[in-house]
Amino acid sequence: MATDKSSLTPARAKAEAETARHKAAKAKAEAVKAKAEAAKAKVAQGHVGGFTNFIREQGVVGLAVGLAIGTAAGDTVRKLVEGFISPIVQFIVGSQEALNSAVWEFQAFGRQADFAWGAFVSSLITLIATALVIYFIIHLLKLDKLDKKKP
């Protein structure tokens, strides 16, 4: 609203000047806010924003929790195999060291090859026993049915 300055009273002129300063300060604050929003949008589109979106959208936190639980479960299964399954295998086969050191020697054309089949069989027995223990734990606790949706 434009008014003739000669017809303004000093009080009215002061009020209009104060209003103009207030509008200018408000416009400056809005400009600063717009710059901040633009900077925030630029960061969101950059590496930092991409990383935070990756963390949120790809379930990295759930993966980290699963890894921690999986590590603890793997240690528990290993102790179970070492404490209960391995003694049974040793009772059936004999000593674990004897099985690990079992070697088949092959000679042909003046050359010799040693095949450490005992270490392979020992490792295979441990693998199968570990897989069975994990299967039974998951099956008995019905953890294999957690992801299935109920009808």
Polypeptide structure, described:
This protein has 151 residues and is mainly α. It has 2 domains: 47 residues; 81 residues, Orthogonal Bundle (Non-ribosomal Peptide Synthetase Peptidyl Carrier Protein, Chain A), CATH 1.10.1200. Helix content is 73%, strand content 7%. It is rod-shaped. The mean pLDDT is 78.
- How many separate domains? 2
Give the radius of gyration: 38 Å
The class by helix and strand makeup works out as mainly alpha
* H-E string: HHHHEEH
The number of distinct helices, counting runs of at least 4 residues, comes to: 5
Q: What characteristic shape results from the CA principal axes? A: rod-shaped
Rounded mean pLDDT is: 78
Give the helix proportion (percent range). over 70%
Number of strands: 2
Strands ordered across the widest β-sheet: 1-2
Strand content: 5-15%
Q: In angstroms, what separates the terminal alpha carbons?
A: 68 Å
What name does CATH use for the topology of the largest domain? Non-ribosomal Peptide Synthetase Peptidyl Carrier Protein, Chain A
Give the low-confidence spans.
none
Tell me the name of the CATH class of the largest domain. Mainly Alpha
CATH architecture of the largest domain: Orthogonal Bundle
| Largest sheet report | 2 strands, antiparallel
